[in-house]
Fold each of these.
Amino acid sequence: MAGLLALIALGLAGCGSNPKDPLANVPAPCPNVALLGDAADLSRYAGGREDLTTMVLDARLTGFQAKCDYAPNHAGLDVTLRLAMSAERGPAATGNTAQLPYMVAVVSADESAVLARATYTAQVEFPANVSRVQTQGEELSIRIPGGVEQARTRRVLLGFVLTPEELAVNRRRGPRG
């Protein structure tokens, strides 16, 4: 009986926390991740007129998935992201594919400084007789350097890469629901 109790105690000793790394079993905090309101929509038109007949593409960022982990030696946070998007092929579109350029920016807590920015492109294909599709961007991993507490005060902003004209369309139209 004593041998059985010793075996159980030994087995349980392997469970639980790692005495060398007290944060080994603690979930990593995530910084604030958000869609950038002015850049959550992408509307493209042909011929300089903004109406339904000249619409080439209308796309929206519809959400995202984010998960966080500690960077090695707790030198910051590793953030893994995947954006969800919808795209509609307009009457003026000439092909059945579209490029959706988007960006990920890491900014200071008060958004006064862009600390890092990267751009990516999602390609969507519209099957025959289908004008609206849902898609996801690739899974992205970014590292926010600094101590964990400093890294978690950063903000991660997601949005489409827009021309000045496309940004002006979004600002005139206002947020869509």
Amino acid sequence: MRVAVVGATGFQGGATARLLVERGHQVRTLSRRPEGERPQLPGVSCGSGDLGRFEDVRQLFEGATHAAVVLPLVYQAEKVLRYAQNIARAARESGVRRLVFNTNIRIPGRTTNVVGFETRRLSETVFREGLSGSGVELVVVRPPVYLDNLFSPWNGPALMKEGVLAYPLPVDARVAWLSHRDLAEAVFAALTVDGLAGRAFDIGGPAVLTGPELAEEFGRGLGREVRYVPLEPAVFEQGLSQLLGAEAAAGVSGVYHYMAAGADPSLLKDDEGLSATALSVKPARAAEWVARQPWQMWTGSEHSYDA
């Protein structure tokens, strides 16, 4: 395949790009960052460009046979609409065979006032309408919450020094945690498995875990006792803003404010194995993922949380 990967310089798109390269496929992407500030992606061709400019997106898609799309952490509806329209048009005009859209989060069945949900709902609608009848197959994957979010400056130090696993979800919330690597496996399957055109999959990990159950998995992976602490979404947003900026942090944390209120528990669960069967993927258990991460890098950091 020759795959246009939108978002390859981010964590989720980067995992997909790396997996594609590992399996011998050609990958290219674009970035607004200067060349010296882009993440290193061996084997990936990265051009300069902006999703808001159609000509840049057209060049990305030119000659591609497939596309994998995850949008950046942008939550302005007009900007997201322009991104999605440009991508759909470029996919149509280039004649890619299939486009896989990762919504980045589950989307509630009803509309909300949460931009993190509604901008992704808008994008999926644009892709479905814009690609309808074009010959470009659309497959949508909707992940829950990423294990990789826990390997971070706001989790690693407290976990290593105090055995505290803090996250902005209630103790009893049941979550189908998924790693970026397993997301990439699901996207790869969505790109390649026959008979998936028009379908959407609520992908997730192999087990649905509460906070304490997740802490047990972490304990097994680390070989130590770990306890779960529900973090206030406002505290999470404050820490995230230092990494992403206030606007992106507000967009991301709005999702957690909504989920912490327990309004729609189905947003966090899996689809009872439907996607694992259709996509033939077997996500790793949380303990296996934990055991593979270089947690020792956080032992000298200063962040901690109180119960």
Amino acid sequence: MTPAATRAVTLRDVAERAGVSTAATSQALNDRGNLRPETRARIKAVAAELGYSPNRSAAALRGGRTMSVGFVMSDTPEDDAAERRALRRTRQLNALVRASAAHGFAVTVLPDSRPDLVQRAQIDVLYFPDPADDRAVLREAVTRGVPVVANDLYIAGAAGLSIRTGYDSAVRAALALLADAGAERIGLLVDESEVPRDQIGESAYLAWTAVRSRTPIVARVDPGRRRLAREVRTLLDAGADAIFSFCEEGPEIYLQLEATGRVIPRDLQLVALCTTDCALNDRLGITHVCVHPELAAETMFARLGEVSGSEPRVIDLPWEIVRGSTTR
């Protein structure tokens, strides 16, 4: 998935077009180093052609000591729930590696149980992707004055960014869409976990139903998805006439509903959350609400230079609803 907005040209884009390293590109654009005059001129010409402008935020980070971003990784034992979280975290790490490389930074991975490594790593900024992880590393970074970037978490007294990934807004928009289509009893499928993302989704659903004096119908799916079919039936037996799948299993739920005769393909009776590949939802004509946690890393580089004072700046990532096709 990509957002509608056009991605800004990065230092890496210029380097790739010019056929040189990002280090050489940085030297050319900042009139440093021992590059040959013709190489320096060629790089500057490519930068002008692409419309590259220096990233002030990245430049501010380069005033630090190490040109390194710390990424907090959970080292808890693996189970079904941990595996699903690990997959999301891997996508976030990959996004951070790409964004960091584009801005000339390296990534240092820190286990969440080792706050002592913050001092040894001498990172310029700490990226905390999952609020469910142990926060010892985060607290150590705050104590040492290291700027912190955190997803869906506000760290009072810390310089940095609080990046809201949009789950709350996405839930409310999806429920409003189903209600506008005539749904009276909207059921929620959510992961059975204490992960903040799922708590955000369920809290938004409960608040939405309370404001509208609707009876909430919630079914929780186990991490291994062994109870998915049973929980779908639970919602239907409880009288749900529409389902919002916050657990992202839209295609499988749709096929189950269609098999029971409870869904007419062109009816809007199912909306699914989507954070990765929307292709199958698109092929089935499922309306899905897309959030973009993978944009957090690039947002960090684009906005960190705006941070000042001792409180984090709050940034909202984009999200959108993709309407399913009425014909298949």
